[in-house]
Amino acid sequence: MSTRSTQEAFQRVLGVTPMQYVQQHRMERVRADLLEVDPATTTFAQVARRWGYLHVGRFSGAYRARFGEFPRDSLHR
Description:
mainly alpha; 5 helices; 0% strand; elongated; HTH araC/xylS-type domain-containing protein
């Protein structure tokens, strides 16, 4: 199976591209971590970097678009 065929099948079955799937999974894992860590000892930027988000501003915007709140708000829940 070619790369393109694999990508098309992925899109057809899951409704997203392989890259979108990976990005969504990473964002879900960041959220899970933010809700579990101690906000007294961990910042949302540390959690974001742990998952490969190096630009905190862009990450924060993408997080808010996905979950409707800023990552710092999730951290302090």
